[in-house]
Design a protein that fits this description.
Blueprint: E1 10-14, H1 18-30, E2 35-40, H2 44-53, E3 58-59, H3 62-67, E4 71-74, H4 78-90, E5 94-98, H5 105-118, E6 122-125, H6 127-130, H7 132-144, E7 147-155, H8 171-181, H9 183-194, E8 197-204, E9 210-216, E10 221-227, E11 236-243, E12 246-249, H10 257-273, H11 281-312
Parallel strand pairs: 1-2, 1-4, 2-3, 4-5, 5-6, 7-10
Antiparallel strand pairs: 7-11, 8-9, 9-10, 11-12
Helix pairs in contact: 1-10, 4-5, 5-11, 7-9, 9-11
Length: about 325
């Protein structure tokens, strides 16, 4: 779609769950630079309710939403998102995607190829790349350089019996765990600072806990522990870097609505200039490749452990 001169770009929303309701829809409705053009969801009633709450239109036909928009934002499970992103790109819509873009490396690459071939702009909403305090910290550490080690632990309590969160009902999060839900956040911080990942080692801990050791093109390494099953009292997201100047720890951030608005700005800038954003669909596909390799290693280790147990009996 092409916006007429002097009019605001029209952005639609795909998804009606808690993430869409609490972050995407409020940010789009309040953004002064766009027109919130409509909502589509897999549950028509939820789409109607969300659209009504923000004074926009609910669409039963996703292709009709694409036809009415210049860009679309996604708040859908990753493997629902990927094929719809291809359809949206083919319809000429620019894309504001959620992380991870997919949970299969071949699917992520296929989607990235289709989006690139369509010639549309894309941004993947990795929150820490767009929240003001964390985005500034990432830029500062990029400029400083010469880091030896990254160390992170993201201990989420989403699946703790004591926790009460609407996100705990998400089937894909239940299936994929912290590796896929919060792993993209950690990678989105360390890759721009330390370089692409050249080797991956992953081991499983209790429940969905995963321990990652990554080597980067800069020669630095990172160690990361990820889980959504931590007790609430231990819940924490902490990322640090170590180098000749000592230690630098990423600051906290407050919510995601402002960060999403910044991601909208980044997409508009990419559309205007024609320059790919650093956190585009290609970057998103790379995150999927790294996480898929980590998952493969855990699955192979679990198969081997079961086989060994069977032989012992």
């Amino acid at each position: 779609m092409t916006t007429l001169p002097g009019t605001k770009p029209r952005i639609g929303l795909l998804g009606t769950g808690p993430w869409a309701e609490r972050t995407h829809a409020p940010a789009l409705a309040a953004h002064p630079g766009v027109e919130f053009a409509g909502v589509w969801g897999r549950r028509a009633g939820a789409a109607e309710a969300l659209a009504a709450a923000h004074g926009t239109t609910a669409y039963e036909d996703v292709d009709a939403l694409f036809a009415a928009c210049d860009a679309v934002a996604f708040a859908l499970p990753p493997d629902v998102q990927a094929p719809l992103a291809e359809r949206a790109a083919a319809a000429g819509c620019h894309l504001l995607l959620d992380k991870p873009v997919a949970t299969s490396a071949p699917v992520a690459r296929k989607t990235a190829d289709a989006v690139t071939a369509a010639g549309v702009a894309s941004v993947v909403f990795c929150t820490l790349r767009f929240a003001g305090p964390t985005a500034r910290w990432i830029e500062e550490q990029q400029a400083a350089g010469d880091w030896l080690l990254g160390e992170a632990h993201w201990l989420g309590a989403l699946f703790s019996p004591e926790a009460d969160s609407p996100y705990a009902a998400s089937p894909w999060r239940r299936e994929k765990g912290g590796l896929w839900d919060v792993g993209p956040h950690v990678l989105s911080v360390y890759l721009p600072i330390l370089g692409d990942v050249t080797s991956v080692t992953c081991a499983a801990g209790r429940a969905d806990t995963r321990h990652l050791i990554l080597r980067h093109t800069s020669g630095a390494s990172t160690t990361t522990t990820l889980t959504l099953s931590a007790p609430p009292a231990t819940s924490e997201a902490a990322l640090s870097l170590y180098g000749e100047r000592g230690r630098s720890t990423m600051p906290g951030w407050d919510g995601a609505v402002d960060a999403f608005a910044n991601a909208v700005d980044a997409l508009l800038e990419s559309i205007r200039t024609g320059r790919p954003h650093a956190c585009d669909i290609r970057f998103g596909a790379r995150l999927t490749e790294i996480l898929a390799e980590a998952e493969r290693q855990v699955e192979e280790a679990q198969v081997a452990a079961r086989a060994a147990g069977e032989r012992a009996h």
